[in-house]
Structure formats: structure tokens, C-alpha cells
Amino acid sequence: MQYGCMHGLMYADENFLTNGDLDRVLDWVPALEGMSLRYLPTFIRTTSPDDFMLHYLRRLIHNSKRASALLFNTFDALDVDIFRAVSSDFPPLYAIGPLQFLLEPIEATNKDTNSIGSSLWKEDPRCINWLDSFAPDSVVYVNFGSITVMTNDQYVEFAWGLANSNHPFLWITRPDLVTGDSAVLSPEFLEKTKNRGLIASWCNQEKVLAHPAIGGFLTHSGWNSTLESIYNGIPMICWPFFAEQQTNCWFSCKKWGIGMEIDANVERSVVEMQVRELMEGEKGKEMRRKAAEWKRLAQEAAAPPNGSSYCNLDHVIAKRERERMGSLSRDRKPHLVCIPYPAQGHINPMMQLAKILHSRNFHITFVHTEFNRNRLLRSAGPNALGGLPSFRFEAIPDGLAPTDANATQDIPSLCRSIELHCLRPFMDLLRRVNRSGVAPVSCIVSDVAMSFTLDAAKELGVPEVMLWTSSPCGFQGCALYDMLIQLDLVPFKDENFLINGDIDWVLDWVPAMEGMSLRYLPTFIRTTNPDDFMLHYVRRLIHNSRRASALLFNSFDALDRDIFQAVASDFPPLYAIGPLQFLLKPIEAEDEDAKSIGSSLWKEDPRCINWLDSFAPDSVVYVNFGSITVMTNDQYVEFAWGLANSNHPFLWITRPDLVTGDSTFLPPEFLEKTKNRGLIASWCNQEKVLAHPAIGGFLTHSGWNSTLESIYNGIPMICWPFFAEQQTNCWFSCKKWGIGMEIDANVERSVVEMQVRELMEGEKGKEMRRKAAEWKRLAQEAAAPPNGSSYCNLDHVITKVLHAWN
């Protein structure tokens, strides 16, 4: 049986979310034992046998087998059991993360690498400065990623949960976070949180989660967010939205012990309670302890020369050729074409990986879509894509109608268009690049979600390594879609599956996911349509990933080891090579050119860091729901008042498109209440914000970048996942890693307040912070050379795959 790719399975009952179908436990799946179907990547949530996203993910998984290697932004200690479980059925899998850890020393020494950005949103510069004014481990960082959306009711519930928790919070609120009309936070909320809450539209999550003030992360459990939480040792509150976020959430909460899950139906009292528990409770303390241990393991994995992720990456590059390659001219360097899926949460880890590989003497061609190229130019200026002589930018059309919108494109439409329209222009680009006078393309490093590139690699006769930019648990969740269809669990048969118990079916037979329900699987399973596009799209992605030479994850072995063990036999070699932020850090520290290369699609608000500087360590709640999450104005207001009522300082990233409908509106009472303790910014450098000492917690959408940046910085989280695998990330953050608390999708200010308070001052928050600190330590160990697992995994990918062809 092919692990994780369960052919022919779909839900027969439209009520699968509520009738118990989703709560069937995957007790027979290695590394997912105890997880229910609810926590698999959500593309199984359909009753349509022809659901597009379900089969799309299946195709991705199948196509990944065509790659020469598969890269994962994780580290062995975290996901080794996942890799073991799936490795036999895939190309070589390399855990080469957390990419953030591997990138950190690179950007620390390479100005050029550090200058290359990938953020699709302009970052609010206030975040870090705001965090600086808070005590260590005192701030809840809230970010639901770049895709998560929520209703206004959910938004308001989160807001009031944060406010009522009385903990400082930094809340990243994209402009499109709230569905429907504009998000409105009442004057009472603004008044209540004015001195302890900052709402920003976007931030540098890596910096935010690395900030000492961050004590917890309310996240959507996206893999980047989850891994960044691990990378920083930050416990999480997980509110997964879709895809593998549910899987990430389950692993964070159940296996890694760094997360607490908030139900999709957000209630302010639960948010408040979980924030308080995250920040001050015994569970929070334990989560923080575990997060610190995971951070240590992540650091070890990414640390040269023996870290597992460092070595894995080195193996892919080819260690034996490194010195020789250092003296080669530009036209003789191995030439990698790196192409991310065109969303902020995918661009960032691919950019981090590209910078790391560039530091290993690879010529890089980084391919954006034309839409995102234009966004980058608007957010960072006309020189944003100037690149370096050996780090160049190109762009291809995505097939969608041109638009000047400064927001993430409609995901299903974008996925469909990419599959139909991107192969030919990509092939034309490769031919043009090969005629340009630089070294011919020697390997393609592609996002798994861009699996059309496998056909291009085959035609060109070069290997392809695929990067799964979400979490390993999200990958495993998506890989379960086939089996869920075969078991007739997906698509759901009952339209009321979210409330009738279907989605609460526990995957007690899935290794590494024991105890997770279908609710926490990547959300593309949440459909009753057997032909649901996204469900089958995700299935195709998973199937296609088997064509890769290796699969890379922005995570680290200590965090996701059981995931890798569970899926390794069914996929190419899996490598946890993260947190990439840790691996990149020393590179950018020495290379200013690398550091100057940016990726933010939003203009960052420069106030954030200065604002944080005025706060005590661990006192500020960072709130950021990522680049895609949207919410209703009611949800927005509930979050706002939850933050205000928590009486904790907060930095809230509020993208212009975070709230659906008209522009967001926060009442004067809220602004008055929070004027001295809350900063609302449109975007920020999240890496800097999370790294700021003032950040004590993270209210997040549980996107994987946000989660990982929380881990990377040892920041506990409050999780409000939006979609995709954010629910999975949330579950893992809350149930396995012990660094998160989940807020229900139906946001209630009292819950937000309660959870912010718990995160920032409760016993659970303290334990989450302790676990987050431990995960941070593990993440640092994974990324640390020479023996860190992620460091070695990346080294291995370099040696065995990237240099092997050359």
C-alpha cells in the first residue's frame, strides 16, 4: 500500500465534519498514530470523487516521485519518523531545515544574500520597535499567515480574547484576513489594548518570533509559521485554516508538545483562556520548555558541520566539490532554477533556500510570476529585483488576467491556471536562460505545488528537487487524501460535516498523527463535491512529488522525525533542512549582498521594531495572520477587543486585504484603550519581530512559516488557522509540540482575551514558553554546523543530488 496516498477515498456523507467520519483515527499509519482524519491536510474534506484539490494534491505527491530528490524545510529530530515511513516510495528525502536557521549565518555574513527578500506584503516597520518595549516572553504574536481568512465574528472573538487575556499582543492582520465587509474593532477594544496591543498588516515574522519579547504565537499552523515557532522556541496556540495546517496543528499539539489548538469556532473566552495558559499557565510553561528543546534540536540540525539538516543539504550540493566550486567562474557554477508557488508563505522559504544554496557557490535563477514581480517592485522599489551577478530574477505569466491588486490571488483559480498555463512559458524561460551565456541549468528546485516543472526537468534532462514549503505534518496529511477517499471518508457526504461530527473522526490509525481528527487535516478535504478541484489538485501534488529526486522540508528532525518515519517509504528521500532561517542567519551576517535580496510582497512598516524596543522582554503579543488569511469585520473586531481587554501590549499586523469587504475600521474606543500598548501595522519583517526580546507570544494563523519562526525564536503561540495545512500546524503546535493554544474559528473577544492572558501570564503560557524555548534549542541544534541534522541533511542533498548531476 502506498503510504499516505489513498486512492479512491472520499466521504459519502455530506456531514462528514460533524458526523464522526473525520474523527476516525489513523492508528495504522506510521508516524500518525492517534491522529484522526480531521487533522490530515484538508483537501480530503470533500464528498466529490472528482474534487480538483484532492486529486491535485494526489498528483503533487505522485509527481514528487519524479524529482531527483525531495527537500523538506524541517529537521530530522522533528520528522524522522515521517521520513522513515515514506522514504521507500519516493526519491531521496532530505530534511534541510529549518531553512531559517541555515540561512541565518549566511545572511549574517553575506550582505547580498540578506538583501534578497520574498515577502509579498509590505512589512510594518513598527513591529520590532514596539516589541522592544516589552519584557521577554510577554508578548503574544498573532499571525494567521498569508492565506487564512476568517469571518468578522471570528476576528472580533480573537480580538477580545487577546484583549481579555491582558497580555500584550502583536497581531498581524492582513487586509484580506476577514471575509465580507471590512473588519471593525470597537473603540472599547482599542482602548482596552492601546498600551499592549499592536495590530499590523504584515511583518517580518522571522524577526518577530526571534524577538525576546515574544512568549507565544497564535498561529494558523502553516508550516512556515510552525517551523519558525520551533526555530525560535515559541509555543503556539493553533487555529489551522486549511491544507496541512490541521496536520501541523496536530503534531504541534499532540506530538511535539508545543501547541494548543483553538477550535475553528472561535470564542473569545477560549482565546483568552488559551492565551493566558500559553503565557502564564503550567501547560504554557511545559509547552515553552518543549519548544525550547525543539529549538535546540532545530539549531543542532542546522548547525555546520554535523547538523543533520546542514549535512543533508551539503550532501545534495556535493561536499566533495565545494572547495573546487568556490574557485569556478560564474559560467561554470552549477545553475539552479528556483521556482516557488506564487504566494508569500511559499516564496519566503524558497528564497531562504536559494540564498543558502547561493552561498554554496550555486548560480541561482529565481523565478517569480509576473504578478508577484510587479508586487515586489511596488513594495520594495525598482531595485528590488536587481539581484547579483550569480543571483538573478526572472518571471513567467501565471495565466490569470492582469491586475494591480496588492493581495494574494484566488488560490483555486491560481492553482488551476498554473497547471494549465505555466509549463510552456517556463520551458521558454529555461531555453532562454541556457542561451544567455551563464552555465546551463543543472537542476530545478521547485515548490511541490509547481509540479509542472517536473515535465520541464524531464525534457531538459536535469534532476529536480522539490521543496514542500508547508509543514511535514501537512505533507503527511495531504498524502492521506487517497486513503481517505478509498475509505469513503472524503469527500464528506453531509453539507453539515463541520458541525455533525464527521470532521471530528480521529485518525488513530495514522502514525505520528494519533489523536488528530479530520478537522486538523489540510482543509482541502472540506468539501462534499466529489469533483472538488482543490481536493484533487492537492492529491496530484502529492503524487507528482514522488517523481522528485528528493523532497525537502523547512523543519528539523527533532520536530518531525515521526512524520518522516511514517511517510518515508512511499516517497523519494525526505530531508528536513530547517529552520531555513537558522541556516541562513550566519550567511546573511557575513554577506550584505545576500541580506539585501528581499522577498516581501508588502511594504514593511518601519515603526514595528522601534515600537517594540520600548517594551519589556516577553511582554508583547505579536498578532499576524499571514499573507492569505482573511476575516470578517466582526472577527477583526473580536480579535481587537480580545487584545485590548487582555491588557497586554500587542503588535498587530493588519494587511490592507485582511478584512473582507470594505476597509477595516477600529472604533475610537479601541484606539484610545490601546494607544500606549498597541501598534497596528500593515506589514512587518516577521523574522525581526519574532526575534525581538519584547515578543512574548504570537497570535497566528498557524501558517508553517509563522509556526516555524515562532519555534525558531522560542515564542509560544495562539493559533487561529485559516486554511490549507494551517489547521494541521495548529494541532501539532498545540497537541504535540506544546507551544500553541488554538482559538476557535468563531472568534470571541473573551476567548482572545483569555488566551492572550494565558499565553502571556498563565501557567500554561509559561509551560508553552518553556517548551518553545526547548524547541528553539532543538531547532538551533538542527541548523548548526557541522553536526546539526538539518545542516547535514542539506549538505547531503547538495552532495548527492545537486552536485551529482553537474
From TrEMBL:
Residues 336-460 form the Glycosyltransferase N-terminal domain. It comes from Carnegiea gigantea. Pfam families: Glyco_transf_N, UDPGT. The keyword Magnesium does not apply. This is Glycosyltransferase N-terminal domain-containing protein. It comes from the Eukaryota. One of its GO terms (molecular function) is quercetin 3-O-glucosyltransferase activity. Keywords: Transferase. Belongs to the UDP-glycosyltransferase family. InterPro entries: Glyco_transf_N (IPR058980), UDP_glucos_trans (IPR002213), UDP_glycos_trans_CS (IPR035595).
